[in-house]
Design goal:
Length: 200
Amino acid sequence: MAYLSKKAFADSQGWAPSYVSKLGKQGRLVLAPDGKSVDVDATLAMIGKTADPSKEGVAQRHERARVQRDVYGANNLAAPDMPASPEQGMAPPGGVGFGDFQAARAMRETYLALAAKAEFERLCGETVQRRPVEDAAFRAARLLRDTVLGLPKQIASDLASMSDPWEIDRFLTERLRLVLTDTTRLGNDELKKAMAAGAD
């Protein structure tokens, strides 16, 4: 391990001393146990695997433009509202400081590919929005429940006058089939509407 003063470290790298001070403020300068000297190897490793924070706003603007171009631009779609870039110099969410640049880049590429895949599947009709379909399923189940629970009141007087078990069986089967067929038709109409709304 090599330890140098901040000025000597700046001179060894061909940097201005103010840049070394800036690295210290950004938490990218690894100091020796005495707190005054710079651990050269650890600092160079830290700088090598962290991104330049002054370029963070530019990188985020480029990323948004790339998502717009690659995911939405090819299909002439409007991109959803994206949050504004954080102020330059702010720490990333979670307070973890500057992470490994390559890992962040790989994660960004992964999510960009997933967004493109989701958009492609939506355009092909393979996926729909979840909420409208869940609401339609709930309404269909409630309609079925209410219709079946309302059936006894509708047929009670007819059943009271019947005494033949075969006739009662045939009558109940016919009325249940009619109720379930109507409910299924209404539920399918509701589901088709929800899927059409969810595909938009």
